[in-house]
Amino acid sequence: MFNSFADRMAQVIVDYSTKVQPNEKVAIISNPAGIPLIESVHDAVLRAGGHPMVQVNLPSLTERFLRHASDAQLDFLDPRALPLYEQADVLVNIHAPTNTKSLSNADPQKQARSQAALRPVVETYFRRFGEESLRFCICAWPTESGAQEAEMGLYEYSQFVHDACGLSQPDPIAYWQEFRAKQTKIADWLKGKKHARIVGPGIDLSFDFADRLWISCHGELNFPDGEIFTGPIESTVKGHVEFSYPTVYGGREVDGVKFTFKDGVVVEASAAKNEEYLLSQLNLDEGARRLGEFAIGTNFFIQKFTGNTLFDEKIGGTIHMAVGRSIPQSLGVNMSQIHWDMVHGMQDGGEIYVDGELIYKSGEFLLA
Q1: Considering the entire predicted model, what is its pTM?
Q2: DSSP letter string over 57-89?
Q3: First vs last C-alpha separation in the chain
Q4: Structural domain contains residue 145
Q5: Model pLDDT, residue 3
Q6: Lower CB count within 10 Å: N or C terminus of the chain?
Q7: Which residues contact 368 (CB under 8 A, 6 or more apart)?
């Protein structure tokens, strides 16, 4: 498995997920722990005729920056940051954590201020994605830190990542093509429907989606992948949810999150762990208290919480919601500096009704 892991993964990312074409500029962003996959993606881009542009960051600098930076430095945008997002045709972002807890004690207000300085980059990223002038793939490479966060050994975690990406299949690209065909049928069935209600342990939530699209995610924008999502009509979300899984955002774990929505806005929010940080993000801007995404996780190779949202939001038998910015594909219009996904299990009797029809129960679709 390990002799070809990075090469097989890179081939799917370049040939299937991002479909790199000759002369396209491909930005590859990671840190030193991601070098095996950086090298393999770099070589796969060259074989496809593209131009790899590699950016390797030192993860320790973020902790140092948030500890020592002045207000003026927190507000500063590196002039080299924006051109990359303006000029790249493809962006491959490789998550390879070296310390998932490095920002646990960072000042939430400093984090929020530093995030605000990146607004031009975030706006460019989402604008170009919406215009379909920038293709991207967010992927993960197994590291000791990621394994520890998932409470696995590195070998076990590497096998988990390998399988979650469909790389254990004889032909991984064919596997993801078949996965796409199955999910597209569900997304097509949802076209023209208007209303969703989600009920079960810890949740009673509803929203309208009449003018929005349901999108199948099948290994293109994320790798691994496995979800179907939409952008709820922002003002229609109502009800409550007590998320059954912890959530990790900005390098900080928040657990026991509870939201109450009224007229589309989070009017009550609490957390058993790191509530101050949760509230600092919800208060970042006007759109942060609205729901930008509702999604159903469909990757049944992922059944264990890992502390990495890239995997956790795809857990087969769960749903997740993101407060903050809508994803343009869904035709959602909410704007925010954040997009924070939070996962809730549906395996123990959770139900989804669409226009009054039960379509999902205990983690499984009931559609023929």
Answers
A1: 0.89
A2: --THHHHHHHHH--HHHHT---TTHHHHHHH-S
A3: 36
A4: yes
A5: 61
A6: C
A7: none
Based on the fold, state whether residues 128 and 201 are members of the same structural domain. Answer: no
- How many other CB atoms are found less than 10 A from the CB of residue 198? 22
Instruction: Kindly give the parts of the chain with pLDDT less than 50.
Output: none
Same domain for 312 and 219: yes
The pLDDT value given to residue 250:
84
Range of the structural domain that residue 123 is part of: 5-168
Task: Provide the pLDDT for residue 2.
Answer: 55
Q: Rounded distance, CA 348 to CA 240, Å?
A: 18
**Residues 256 and 330 placed together within one structural domain of the fold:** yes
CATH of the domain at 18: 3.40.1830.10
Three-state secondary-structure class, residue 215: strand
> Does residue 201 share a domain with residue 160?
no
The verdict on 9 and 55 lying in the same domain is yes
How far is Cα 107 from Cα 328, in angstroms, rounded to an integer? 31
- DSSP three-state, residue 298: coil
- What are the start-end ranges of the E strands in 166-244? 195-200, 203-208, 215-217, 222-223, 227-230, 238-242
Rg of the Cα atoms in the chain: 20
For residue 367, the model assigns a pLDDT of 87
In the chain, the number of structural domains is: 2
Question: From CA 320, how far away is CA 203, in angstroms rounded?
Answer: 12
Place of tokens 């095996």: 36
Please report whether residue 219 resides in a domain. yes
Q: Are 338 and 324 in contact (CB under 8 A)?
A: yes
Judge if 61 and 120 occupy the same domain.
Answer: yes
Quick one: angle between helices 35-47 and 5-12, nearest 10? 50
Q: Residues 276, 63, 344, CA angle at the centre, nearest 5°?
A: 45
Q: Which amino acid is at 155?
A: Y
Q: Measured on CA atoms in the order 71, 75, 79, 82, is the torsion positive or negative?
A: positive
352 and 269 within one domain: yes
Give dist(CA 217, CA 229) in Å, integer.
8
Q: 201-235: buried (b, 16+ CB within 10 Å) or exposed (e) per residue?
A: eebebbbbbeebbbbbbbbbbbbbbbbbbbbbbbe
Instruction: Quote the distance between the C-alpha of residue 234 and its chain's center.
Output: 20
Asked if residue 177 is part of any domain, the answer here is: no
Residue 353 sits in the same domain as residue 247: yes
